[in-house]
Write a structure and sequence with these properties.
The chain is of the alpha/beta class. Strand 2, helix 2 and strand 3 form a beta-alpha-beta unit. The chain contains eight helices and ten strands. Helix 1 packs across helix 2 and helix 7 packs across helix 8. The longest helix is centred in the first third of the chain and has 18 residues. The strands form two sheets. A seven-stranded parallel sheet has the order 1-10-9-6-2-3-5. It has one domain: Rossmann fold. It binds 2-amino-2-deoxy-6-O-phosphono-alpha-D-glucopyranose. The site of 2-amino-2-deoxy-6-O-phosphono-alpha-D-glucopyranose has 15 residues, from strand 6 and helix 5. Keywords: Hydrolase.
């Protein structure tokens, strides 16, 4: 695991966009899986601004969906696909045929998960995973406890995730209770795993991610086991002890 420290959220977003642009410049059709959530939104906007200036071309990327709420249709604006479309696919002008959704059309959602994981593997795995850090250390919707080899699967949302997503749904009772998520196995196998972390509210869980025990109770702690992981964090998230570590 490597760490890059940024002064604030704006610098983190520019740094993440630059890192992505460099990788895309080297391999324009790379396989990327992208988080929704608030943290990476400005990074995606920076990347889109770079594309408008002709500094990067993201139109040939292969984009994989990271997670989804079960039983929420893709055309619902609150779906995670809808969020990815607005924040990443549309601004970067990525055509539909280069996007791999977590197809939830099958009556058996686990079969969809298995098929999606097989597709990711058949296409060579993720080159880049852009991830956010859940309040309880979840990556995508790999809620604690999740082992390092947890597969792509249906997962009930944890209480922490329900609370943190309640603002998007108009109250905790309206948050969909089930999700599908890319597995820890796929995410940890990414050639580059970028974890974006911003703000003081993430300080304690980032400390546990980087310096606590490696444990299924903090799924994000497994990123320490691979040299292919990169934490991009602002000083507010890192706090004094980790900034100077
Ligand atoms: N399932 C999503 C994750 O993909 C996201 O990365 C994380 C952090 O979200 P945020 O960046 O808003 O803190 O929580 C959500 O529940």
């Amino acid at each position: 695991m490597k760490t890059r420290v940024y002064d604030d959220h704006a610098a983190l977003s520019r740094g993440a966009a630059l890192a992505l642009a460099q990788a895309i410049g080297e391999k324009p059709d790379l396989n990327i899986v992208v988080a929704t959530g608030s943290t990476p939104m400005d990074s995606y906007a920076e990347l889109a601004a770079m594309q408008r200036r002709g500094e990067v071309n993201c139109r040939r990327l292969h984009v994989f969906q990271l997670d989804a709420y079960l039983d929420v249709a893709d055309d619902d604006p609150r779906s995670l696909y809808g969020w990815m479309k607005r924040s990443f696919l549309d601004p970067l002008e990525i055509p539909d045929e280069r996007v791999f959704r977590m197809d939830r059309g099958n009556a058996d959602p686990q079969r969809n998960c298995d098929a999606h994981a097989a597709l990711v593997r058949a296409r060579g795995g993720y080159d880049i995973a852009v991830l956010g850090l859940g309040p309880n250390g979840h990556l995508a919707f790999n809620e604690p406890p999740s082992m390092r080899d947890a597969p792509t699967r249906v997962v009930p949302l944890s209480e922490e995730s329900i609370v943190s997503n309640a603002r998007y749904w108009g109250g905790r009772d309206r948050v969909p209770p089930l999700s599908v998520t890319a597995g820890m196995d796929l995410l940890l196998a990414a050639k580059t795993l970028m974890l974006l972390v911003s703000g003081e509210g993430k300080r304690e869980i980032l400390r546990r991610t980087m310096a606590g025990p490696v444990t299924p109770m903090v799924p994000s702690s497994y990123i320490r086991e691979t040299a292919r992981s990169l934490v991009l964090a602002d000083k507010a998230a890192l706090g004094e002890s980790l900034v100077h570590a």
